[in-house]
Amino acid sequence: MEENLIEKLIGAFMSLSGVGYKTAQRYAYQILDEDEEVANNLASSIIEVKSKIKICKECGNFSSSDLCDICKTRKSKIICVVKEPKDINCIEKVKNFDCVYHVLHGCISPLDNKGPDDIRIKELLSRVSTNNYEEVIVATNPDVQGEATAMYIAKILKPLGIKVTRLAQGISMGSELEYADEVTLSRAIEARREL
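The structure assignment produced for this chain is given below.
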């Protein structure tokens, strides 16, 4: 019976992206070795974040209120389009770069049956049409899906007369923004190119 409970916990950890059996097993046994308070804090934190965090109605970032802190406080003429909310944290590490964000919550990926209607492109088009943005920076990952998404966004925004740029290739092809350091990201932002 005890083994089934441990395997169930290992399986729960394995349901997280990027967590294999050995890592999940390490997490499970660490939970068992810790005080009950540590396990309770972890469990309550997960439940609390799932019940209180929602999507910002303006940009699509995670927020505890209708608008995230960035949308509440920033007024920029540059909008930076990212794939996931975690990518905002990466861009925010770059000092002296002022922009607002738009989170797509995915990329165009025909192999995964994900088209433009399955991500937040309509919302981006609406924001750009109703605000006076001077530039849209497409900061999707430099992989096939990120490039396809960038090209699609450029195609639909060009007729609006807005400048659409792409991060320069300071970030290697096939990598993800969350693994790029601040210097690489800073150079990629500075050397962005028009699409």
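Interim note for the steering committee: Strands lie at 54-55, 62-63, 78-82, 100-103, 135-138, 163-166, 193-194. Residues 14 and 23 are 8 Å apart (CA to CA).
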